Structure formats: C-alpha cells, structure tokens
Amino acid sequence: MSIRLFAVLSVVLCVGARGDATFAQHGAASPATSGWNADLPLAEAEDTNPDPRIVEVNITAKFASVEVAPGKRVNAWTYNGGLPGPFIRGKIGDRLIEHFKNELDQPTTIHWHGVRVPIEMDGVPGISQPEVQPGESFTYDFVLRDASLYWYHPHVFSAAQVGFGLYGALLVEDPDDGVGIDDELTIVLSDVGFDRTGKLESADSGGPAGMVFGREGAYLLVNGKVMPTLRVRSGAVQRWRIVNTAKSRFFFLDLDGQTFTKIGSDGGIQEESVTSDAMLVTTGERVDVLVTPTGKPGSSLVVKAMLYNRGYGSVEYRAVEDLFTIEFTSEPALPKRALPKITRTITPPSGANATPIDIVLTLPPQDANGQSEFHINGVPYWKAKPFRANLGETQLWTIKNESDWDHPMHLHGYFFMPVDDKSQPIRPMQWKDTVNVPMKTTARFLVAFDERPGQWMFHCHILDHAEGGLMGTVVVGDVPTVEHIHKTGG
Ligand code: C2O
Ligand code: CU
C-alpha cells in the first residue's frame, strides 16, 4: 500500500502554483519559509479514484514499529503502518470510499467521529455493523456533507485500540469558506505509553484507579512525533486545525503567551471568532485557530501543554509539558497585520418545543471488590436502556455532571448546539459533537434529529470512562434496537 509523504502546507505547494519561499498571502509578502513544516508532515492517504468528486482510499489496520523520536520506537497499532493513520482529505460534497482491512489479531471497526454518516457507516459493532474480524474487510462509503476537521478511530475496545495508535484525521474542506490563509497545518495531538523496548503500556495499567482517572501515555505526540519543530517567519499568519485524538489526555495549549483566534470547532466555522491566550482541546474535540507566532528572527519558542484540572491527578505533582518548537527563520519579521474577519451565519434549532432529556453522570463509591463504574442516570452502559427520539424531533439535553471528573460527552452522527440555562445559544454559536462537561457542572445543548434513523451512541470521550460505564444510545426513528450494548462494544 503506497502512501506518499505529504507536507500539510496544502493545496498551495501541492499544485505547485507558487514558489517556495515567497508566495503572496492576500497581497502580503512571503509568509512562509521553505520547509517550514517539514518536521510535522502527515502521511496522506492515496486517492485511487480519478473522479475528482470521489475520494477512494485503502486503509489497513496493522501492527508496525514506528519511530516517534530519533532512536525511539514504539510497537504501535497503526493504520497503514504510520502514526497517526493516513490523512484523508476531501471537499464538501465529495463521496468517500474506504476499503478497510483488518490485519490485527482482534476485531475492530472504523467510526467517523463527527461525520454525519448514515448509521450503517457509523462503525459501532452490534448496532451499525458487525465487527470486522482479523483478516476481514469492510467498505465504508458515504458523502462528506459538512466542512470541518474530523477523525477516524475504532469502536471496539476503543480505549486500548485508540491508545495504541489507531487514529487518523479527515479534513473536509470548503473551498469557499473565505478564510484565505495559505499557511495551513493540520495538527493531530495524542499520547502513547511504552517502555524502552517499544512495548506498549497495558491498556488496564493502574487497575480501577487508572480507569477512573483516564490513562495518559507519557509521550506526547504532535503528528506522531515527540517535540517536532515548525520553522516559520516571524509574523506570518497560520491556520491550525487541531484534533485531540488521545484516549484521555486534555491539551491546554500555550503559545508562549501569544494569542489564538478560534474561528471554528467540531462542526466547521463558528458564528464569530474569539481570541484568547490559551486553547483547551479536550478529547475528541477539534479547533480551527489562526495564530501569528512572533519572535526575534533566529530565535525559537516552545508550544506547551499547560496543566488543566480535569480531576484528581491531572495537576497534582505534575508539570507543564513541551509539545513542539517554533523556530523563527532569519528573515525579517513580517509587519503585524489584522486577521481576516471570519463569520458564519448559523440558524440555531428552536428550543421552544424541544423535548427535555435529562442525563446525570455519577461515580458511585467503589464496590466491595474495589471495582468502580461510572453511571448515566444510575446505571453503567451495560444495564442502560436507550433514549428515544422521533425523526425531525428537537431535544434539549441537560447533562449534569455530579462526579469529580470532567467528561467530554460525544454524540454520534449529529451536531448539537450548546445553550445556556434559558435554552438560548451560547454565543458565538458553534456546532459541536463533543462538549466538555467540567466536574460538578451542568451543560445543555439542543439537537435536531434529521432524516437519518438509527441507534446512535453517546459517551464520554475519555475512553477509559466510556468503557467504565459512561456510554448510552439514542434510538432515532422506528428502527430495530439493541436493548443493552454489550460489553465489548466500547
Ligand atoms: Cu470518537 Cu464513539 O467516538
Ligand atoms: Cu469521562
């Protein structure tokens, strides 16, 4: 299977329309530097279909030894032998066909996180498809309806399989999104735990306490690399689309105190941009940000993961960690320029007749055997009954987190809109598929179920929490229903 290395600098350099060191960026001079992102490439999936509106790719899940830093190798579980898996790119309205083959020694599937797929393509065993057994294949085939950054990962033993390396990015571009920043980078953040021989840390390390915390790997990976370097000209505006594919770790980004201007999230461009000096990306979430790293030519800075309290053990005895280096070239800094104003008109679902759905997340005390389980409305997923919705129905979900841990809750197949306690959209409006519900707080969102029936999952995207009980389903329309999702379905 051939994959070709692809510098994510994007369209611009790929079509060769412009030179390397000096190309125009909206009339401004020379933002990028040749080879600026050479250290952060993502291997791109090869599109085998000549039809420009069809993206057809071959993806094989297999074991491979991957070098994450000079001399440091991990025996990872991979898609096509790389970490992360192949970067798949399409345009809004394209059809994506993926021929998937499982060469692992246990069953798996692919779930297309955030994509509005038909249920048959959602990758949940027992609900949308059978597990893909070792040696077997499955073809995923659907239309990319919405522009944004998405990702794909297994939905069988997810905490283990994602933690071992099975994840990849899917970018659906809207050529008319009007953002117009040429220096684009897709950044896949993850982590992995392994020892000196490259052996992966066991998926149940730490026992029940590990599950309750949500296991983090000691190596922080940026596009599959430990501490890569981005070479930029000071003052050049860049667009970073970031996805957090770690199974439990949150990334709270610091760009040496410089600002992030967030223009979009899980479901594409948001109503208006927001500027802040740190950027939280919880598990499963995506952010679309504009940044203008600035520094003395020839100097460098380090992008860091700051401490963020998502529960006991996430800040205690821990330090800020380095993620990647930004090296400024010797070219003179570009003059400061105003960022383009990025807006999008979003029509929110009406909360007026929304059916209320109340969800309470708890962590009861350990049982006599020292086991712990998370509950949704008093039961772990293996005892849960599905929620129900009619086609076309709008629901108001209220998620009350009574536990001492944050839970980034993800709904399959549908975007939702976060709202306040009066059911009014939180401004600026944005479409989400994963929303963090911090410990001891309540989050609310409106979701309008459309014409796609099926039994759709929702769960915490700290995958250890999901497998520890925090999963459920919502049955949309009148479809055959699985009463309890079975234990290996995580
Ligand atoms: Cu990315 Cu069921 O999740
Ligand atoms: Cu959780």
Overview of the structural elements:
The protein is mainly beta. The protein has four helices and 31 strands. The protein has helices spanning 11-14, 158-163, 207-213, 463-467; strands at 4-6, 42-44, 54-69, 72-79, 88-91, 95-102, 111-113, 137-143, 148-153, 168-173, 184-192, 219-222, 229-232, 238-244, 251-254, 260-265, 268-276, 279-281, 286-291, 300-305, 321-328, 355-362, 375-376, 387-389, 394-401, 407-411, 417-419, 434-437, 442-448, 454-460, 471-476. The strands form seven sheets. Strands 12-11-14-19-16-17 form a six-stranded mixed β-sheet, with no helix packed on it. The chain has a five-stranded mixed β-sheet with strand order 13-21-20-15-18, with no helix packed on it. The radius of gyration is 22 Å and the shape is globular. The model is unreliable at 1-31 (pLDDT under 50). Bound molecules: CU-O-CU linkage and copper (II) ion. The site of CU-O-CU linkage has 10 residues, from strand 7 and strand 30.
